[in-house]
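In the design runs reported in the main text, the only information available to the sequence generator was the tokenized backbone. The following block is the verbatim input for one such run; it is reproduced so that readers can re-run the procedure and compare outputs position by position.
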């Protein structure tokens, strides 16, 4: 038995919650990517200790925080990083926008791979750049994995493309890209002289195989081109504390990115950094227990989805997210809306990720709630 509690349902409607207050109270929300689990006790204790000092003025990352991330990177990923490489900021989405503003010029191309976490698709428009995208290759009977489609990437890139927004492990498919794919991607990046903003937010949530390999660790030749984005937010369920870190090995690239942050981040989230420091220095036991729970939840979803006619699911290798292909499930033009209206289960609409007909299901919740949600989905997806 785990010493941590992943079973007690918590009422998240008692405080403002994007996930739980977006819909009517009879809806089970398995959409936005935060979990329903209580955070690690070590984080709760660290936050309580910080609250005991009743001053919350301007702050900056301290040596304990930057060293904790250095230690985490080396012990978990065999990638030695330095404190000077770190630029802390309030979240990965702001970092994507800073990268576009700081590293490209108006009208330049910003490329990403779909399906993709929706904010990726809006970065270019929000920053006055040109949005470019390439679809992934869907799983087949011969190859059950989501794969990069390098022909599609070559067709999408132009001489004006300057920046690749990359997601690894991949949200929403849960794909963990292998060394061969990363090598081909590095070849593509070098050939087209691209810069890369690599969102590795789910890197601590690998469910299968070995530990995550950061893009720069896998392909050191990209160190001068790559910004790696990390955070405790997804792994340790502290997304509301808005704190993330851009790890940038190259001094010139780091200076460009930091210059782009000026005026946008006059200070830092004290509680977010407190939580991150506690997570990286003392949260490993909780993380291992969480992974066990997520693997059990994933197994349940894979078993249920296999019974639903016309639904396809490739078991995610990472994350707490399942990417459901509902195009042949007989649910009409908007499967997500039909599931919401009739089963009262809220999923993310695949159209927002660039792939209509799909839906993203968040299984980072207590088993009791997950079973209830899947039972509701059975009422529409199983033959009657």
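Verbatim output:
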């Amino acid at each position: 038995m785990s010493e941590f509690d992943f079973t007690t349902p918590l009422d998240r409607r008692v405080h403002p919650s994007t996930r739980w207050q977006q819909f009517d109270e009879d809806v089970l929300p398995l959409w936005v990517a935060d979990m329903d689990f209580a955070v690690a006790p070590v984080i709760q204790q660290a936050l309580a200790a910080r609250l005991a000092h009743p001053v919350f003025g301007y702050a900056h990352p301290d040596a304990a925080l930057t060293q904790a991330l250095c230690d985490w990177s080396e012990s978990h990923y065999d990638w030695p990083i330095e404190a000077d490489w770190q630029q802390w900021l309030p979240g990965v989405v702001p970092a994507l926008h800073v990268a576009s503003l700081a590293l490209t010029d108006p009208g330049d191309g910003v490329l990403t791979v779909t399906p993709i976490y929706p904010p990726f698709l809006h970065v270019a428009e929000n920053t006055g750049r040109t949005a470019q995208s390439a679809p992934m290759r869907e799983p087949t009977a011969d190859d059950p994995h989501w794969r990069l489609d390098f022909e599609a990437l070559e067709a999408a890139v132009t001489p004006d493309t300057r920046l690749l927004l990359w997601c690894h492990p991949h949200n929403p498919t849960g794909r963990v890209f292998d060394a061969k794919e990363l090598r081909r991607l590095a070849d593509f990046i070098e050939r087209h002289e691209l810069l890369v903003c690599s969102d590795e937010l789910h890197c601590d949530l690998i469910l299968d195989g070995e530990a995550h390999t950061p893009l720069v660790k896998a392909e050191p030749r990209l160190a001068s081109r790559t910004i790696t984005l990390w955070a405790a937010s997804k792994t340790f369920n502290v997304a509301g504390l808005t704190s993330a870190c851009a790890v940038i090995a190259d001094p010139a690239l780091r200076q460009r990115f930091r210059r782009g942050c000026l005026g946008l981040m006059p200070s830092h989230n004290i509680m977010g950094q407190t939580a991150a420091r506690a997570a990286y220095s003392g949260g490993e036991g909780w993380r291992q227990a969480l992974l066990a729970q997520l693997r059990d939840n994933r197994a349940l979803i894979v078993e249920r989805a296999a019974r639903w006619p016309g639904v396809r699911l490739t078991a995610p290798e990472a994350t707490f997210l399942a990417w459901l292909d509902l195009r042949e499930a007989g649910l009409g033009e908007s499967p997500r809306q039909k599931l919401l209206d009739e089963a009262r289960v809220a999923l993310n609409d695949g159209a927002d990720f660039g792939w209509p007909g799909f839906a993203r299901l968040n299984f980072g919740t207590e088993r009791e709630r997950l079973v209830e949600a899947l039972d509701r989905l059975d009422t529409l997806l199983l033959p009657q």
